[in-house]
Amino acid sequence: MILSGIILICINGCRIQPEQEEQKPNIIVFFCDDLGYGDLGTFGHPTIKTPNLDRMAETGQKWTNFYVAAPVCTPSRAALLTGRLPIRSGMCSGRRRVLFPDSNGGLPQSEITIAKALKSAGYATACIGKWHLGHLQEYLPGSHGFDYYFGIPYSNDMDQVEVEGLDYYTVCTNPEIEYFQVPLIKDNEEIERPADQTTITRRYTEEAVQFIEMNRDKPFFIYLAHSMPHVPLFRSEAFENKSLRGIYGDVIEEIDWSMGQILNKLEDTGLDENTLVVFTSDNGPWLIFNEYGGSAGLLRGGKGGTFEGGMREPTIFWWPGKLEHKVVMDMGSTLDLFPTICNLAGVEVPSDRIYDGVDLSPALTGDTSSLRNEMFYYRGTEVFAVRSGAYKAHFITQSEYGGEEPVVHDPPVLYDLNVDPSEKYNVAEQHPEIISEIKNLIVEHKKSVVPVENQLEKRTGE
After folding, report:
1. 261-280 pLDDT tens trace
2. Tell me: the pLDDT tens digits for 58-109?
3. Angle at 129 between CA 121 and CA 346, to 5 degrees
4. Active-site residue among 73, 92, 172, 342?
5. 321: nearest Cα among 53, 12, 15
6. Which of 32, 127, 132, 342 is catalytic?
7. What pLDDT is attached to residue 403?
């Protein structure tokens, strides 16, 4: 089928009935944690088997220039759900880069999530998996438009128990369930602590399948945010020592199994041709954990940094009968999901605030190019780099983790990402006009940023 406002013709030539024309699409967004650009078979990994994700890419669309809005968990998740850069909601900080169990802040009630927007159009909404946008009740998914929540409130390495003789790295790379007292929450009730992380991917999957079955006769939105492959790595018994890539590969292959279960459910219920499925990750691989972290493939850097490996993510869109199969090299971002999903669902994007996303639906369902041409690479509250078209200028660089001070570049370092996606060859001297244009973009962007209360720096007892 072809989507353009009203759906016109079936593949077999039959006319669609009026009640089908008005049917709103289901939406499922899968958001992994710390998955690298090079960690899927379809994105080039030679020893991790991902047949279900490969099938999605082979029948859907693989986007090769798709970005998140931040290189760490909390701000990246805030941006996806709101369509706004985290600087606008107070969900980023240079001091505390994410929320912690002692944090007193979270995503403000004034923000409108995808779930909240879709509820106005009659959607059933579920958040399954890692939240990390505030663990206090006023910030949990139920307060942000989700009818149902099943998952953990923050990263799976938090609430760590001190183990005598073992440092943080050792505990994370040789984990036991009881080392991490992370709670499992259903709606607003804690049902398990510590969460049994060996079964958590399977249980997320079962919850999603059940939600699809329960809401098969009405439009639904599922935000399934896997807790892994963030360390500590856990997988179920069925996936132990299954992958040639070791435990990290085991974890990815179980996530791929999860995708297969959910795609099969959509196909078995006949919902596949009315469901848009998006698969991506919150940031790049956590390189400091060596073989327990992932790979950014040919990209430079990883989680925590503003080189491509930290913010360019492996991304697949799947919607049988609606999306033409192709590899899309245009730019896109998780910021774009909010306006795209709103448009597909017939929901008007609010006009009372600035949005940083663009509607990708014409590029997804038609022959047009993506409207995104720029990307701002924030680290905390600072713009470290900007991409405009093929060119990316780094004004500040800093190692992802560690004590190194940031390095200010004047003139900035410039890379042509079409030619040099690994960011090896500085072409600043050849293109002073590009640098000037990008500097102007930053000036205009900063004019649009209004100071708000920082949510990440609020701590319990302060």
Report:
1. 999 999 999 999 999 999 99
2. 999 999 999 999 999 999 999 999 999 999 999 999 999 999 999 999 999 9
3. 15
4. 73
5. 12
6. 132
7. 80
Dig out the tokens for 217 from the structure. 């006769």
CA 210 – CA 149 distance, rounded (Å): 13
Instruction: Say how far apart CA 184 and CA 187 lie, in whole Å.
Output: 10
- Strand ranges for 326-439 from DSSP E: 326-333, 374-379, 382-388, 391-397, 407-416
pLDDT at 16 (0 to 100): 35
Closest CA to 226 of 131, 113, 341, 124: 131
Closest CA to 209 of 219, 224, 226: 224
Tokens of 281: 């990750």
Is 132 known to be catalytic?
yes
Residue in the structure block whose two tokens are 């206090």: 136
- Predicted local confidence at residue 15, as pLDDT: 33
Cα Rg of the chain, angstroms = 21
Non-local CB neighbours of 116 within 8 Å, separated by 6+ positions? 144, 145
What residues contact 13, with CB distance under 8 A and at least 6 apart?
Answer: none
What token pair was written down for 305?
């940094």
Q: Please name the helix (run of DSSP H) or strand (run of DSSP E) that holds residue 276, with its range, or none.
A: strand 275-281
Rounded CA-CA distance 356/164 in Å is: 47
* End-to-end Cα spacing for the chain: 56
Q: Give the residue ranges of the chain where pLDDT is below 50.
A: 1-21
Structure tokens at 26: 């289901």
**DSSP H stretches of helix in 269-382:** 308-311, 337-345, 361-365
Q: Does the annotation count 92 as an active-site position?
A: no
